[in-house]
Structure prediction request, 170 residues.
Amino acid sequence: MKKLLLILGIVLLSAPLIFSCNSDQDEEPLGPLIGEWESRAYVDSLGLWSVETLDFLTDSTYQLRQTFRESEFGSDLGYRFIYNFDYRLENEIIDYQFIDGFEVYMFPHPDIGPLYAPFEDLREFLIDFSFGDSYAEWSLSENQLELNLSFSCPSYDGNCPVLKKYKRSN
Prediction:
């Protein structure tokens, strides 16, 4: 009888451990920005769609990339640039820090070089972001499908704040 009570006691004490290992409970909750967001604009002079994509990941990094398409929802023809950032959310502020990036050669002069290229033809991009604040205010639409980013203003530019609008693409 004592053995039966001992076994029953062990089973009862072990039960919470067994049921608390549910994989759904162990997953980190996704933040409100996690996923891909796109801002698409048709460029008449090029006859192409310019697509700026933000890809927020669960590891507190995001990627900003610009591609071009023949149609708004078509396949990407190539990249103009890809930049990677660390980020941190605090209320309605996103602080970000540049990690690394790649861009087409002769990026500042599209008349001289290509407008876009495949990833393997992009060159490493070096930049000094120490000249200003690296944050933006963010907000989501009520249905969580539109993201507004209002970027801080560089000290040398009076056209601020810069407002960018993105739509969830995944």
About this structure: The first helix runs from residue 2 to 19. The mean pLDDT is 80.
